Amino acid sequence: MASFNLQLLPGDGIGPEVMAEVGRVIDWLNANSGAKFETETDLVGGSCYDAHSVSITEDAIKRADQSDAVIFGAVGGPKWDSVPYDVRPEAGLLRLRKDLDLFANLRPAICYPALANASSLKPEVIEGLDILILRELTGGVYFGEPKEVVTLESGEKRAVDTQLYTTHEIERIARVAFELARTRANKVTSMEKRNVMRSGVLWNQVVTELHAAEYTDVELEHMLADAGGMQLVRWPKQFDVIVTDNLFGDMLSDVAAMLTGSLGMLPSASLGAPHPVTLKRKSLYEPVHGSAPDIAGEGKANPIAMIASLGMALRYSCDMGEAADLVDAAIADVLAEGVRTADLATEGQNTVSTREMGDAILAAMSKRAG
Ligand code: NAD
User: Considering the domain boundaries, does residue 235 fall inside one?
Assistant: First the structure.
């Protein structure tokens, strides 16, 4: 029997509430999927700071490193706004990304038919949308050196950020894009700004060369990132996998996120390089949303992004594509039945609690599994 060790890091605010529903889906999988999941739960973020004066403990980092996947809730909240910078809640998440070298950030943008009216775009533009934004997460202008503000002789200040990419960094993210495309609609769109940036020229060249050498079966197109942003809101269904750098990916994935309606719907995955022998990747799965302190403790949070994040873990870390499809289909079923948490409801619609949404998804999974 396949067995997996998952580290659960619920975090702060609504994190523990939505993670509780993930716990119930894991119980369901243990009873029904034929695979065995063991979980360990650790503190992260503000709740960890309260207990240990750090945003994540060394023990938790070690367990993350040894786990098959880290399932992360959300961190932060006004309570910790004035804690020292290096132990602020987000530092725990950044430390995990860095220590596990999670260079590939996957954000699917899927439009469930039942929610086509919730988007700011026309329903026909987004109905049936299923695209994946792949963002390089550990390089580029957010990390390049020098990164500083200097005072010039004139007294004026000058700020510098450095956009920096090596062949290796571009090649490994492009490889993930091509591999993912092969499991989907087999198309990659690479976005950069080669018209004005040297790093864009190199990005374009490395992606083109890797494609020619190893992935000619996958359709590849190049698009300037600004034009890509425009095309994303004009006709997003033209895309399958979009691969881009850290900065452009940050913006384009937020644009893609809003195509589908609520923040409470969006999962994400961050993957590292495959281990040379086992081929397993370090991985962390988390909803795109934050800790939503405005609704924390009220049982109102939508658990779908969190549950769909577990679904991504099944797909990318456990090689359980069928179970992942089941989770996704169950989510689509409950939405089609009209089950809505408050963030999804239109005026006059009945709303359910976090727990009731979890109940509905579990029932839909059981129904489909027969
Ligand atoms: P947020 O995503 O927490 O909330 C934005 C809005 O969306 C709020 O009105 C919230 O109620 C709503 N919302 C978010 N998730 C929801 C869900 N699952 N169901 C229903 N409604 C939901 O963003 P914010 O308000 O800008 O930030 C709040 C805190 O979260 C801050 O401390 C911020 O630093 C932190 N944050 C953490 C992460 C993370 O852990 N990765 C990401 C973003 C923000």
Answer: yes
